[in-house]
Every structure is written in structure tokens, then in C-alpha cells.
Amino acid sequence: MDEKTVQYYNENAESLYNFYSSVASGQGISKYFLSAFPSLNAKILDIGAGSGRDILELLKHGYDAYGVDASESLVYTTLTHNPDLKGRLQVSSLPELKNLQGKYDSILCSAVLMHIPKRSLFDSACRIRELLNPNGRLLLSLPKKRTINTKTFRDLNERLFYPYTGKYIRYLFKKIGFSNIGYWEDSDSLKRSITWITMLFQYSNSH
Q: What average pLDDT does range 141-155 have in this prediction?
């Protein structure tokens, strides 16, 4: 995970927690949960869990949900507001994703990959694959377009937004054994002028 991006989230944890928590239930990527993850008792990892919004939504539907986030301050803030998530949310980030035990039936990776430098993207994808059970599913999202500095790929807050395209991400995951079984484009659930690409992949360990 890009260090300057993590620094921004650490320095603005409380306000970002409130902002991301304002998404209504069933909005954003969560509207795909039931169709993407058909087994309601599935063990699911949310990478980039942030405010815990999606973990809480997954738990509400009966999934066995866990999460990690790169920002220590945001994890602390989220656990302060949601003490029931203790033991389900911890600090960890791509590409290493340390301190995780076992495998998961599905992985959620919403609005994360654009914060991963290109040199770390392949290792990040392979680590995701390593954490999935056979036939496990990956639901991910990334912005179709973002206003950034075209030389540094950073926004005004110095967050990295590497301009990965849906086509590139699809190609990468297909090369390491995933099948792309869903693709959607949606407006931003927080009313920002962003179009989001959401993709659903399934992993076959026969690759």
C-alpha cells in the first residue's frame, strides 16, 4: 500500500470514518453481496475495510466476515465506534497481508487497488489468490476515472490513484487463474462525480 496514502488516512481517520459510514445499507458495492457470495455462512475477508461498513453489512446477512486496513488510526477509530468488531478487524495491507491465518471462501477488495503502486500489483493479486479457497470468489471495485496529477497519479491530498483500467485488472487476474464472471459500472454512493467499475472473479486452483 502506498505510504503517502496511508498517512492521509491516519491523519484524517475520524472524519473519514464518518464520511464512509454515511453510505446507506444496501448501497455501493454492498448491493452485490448476496449475488456475489451465494453461501450465506461463507468466510469472507474485506481488504481495505476502512470504516467497517461492509464488514457490518456482511455480518448482517449472516456471513462470517473479517477485515483488514492499512491505516492503524482508522482501524482504531472503527473499533472505538464498533467494539463488536474486535477480533474481526486488524491492521494489515497488500501486498503482504501479514498475520492472516487460514483461507477464505470469498474476498472483498473495494476501492483499494488504485492505491497499490504498479510494482506491487502482481504480488498483491497473487497474495489474494493465496488466501482463497478453491472456487473462491473475489469482488473488487476501482474508479473508472479520477481527477489526478497525470505525472504522479496523486490527488490533491497526495493519495495515489494509479489509473488501472478494468481491462487491465481483468487481464491480470485471468493470467493467475481467475475467471471474470461479473462486470458492472455504477455512480458513486457518496455523491462524488466518480464512476465505479465493479468486477466479480472466481478462482480455480486447477490453473
A: 89
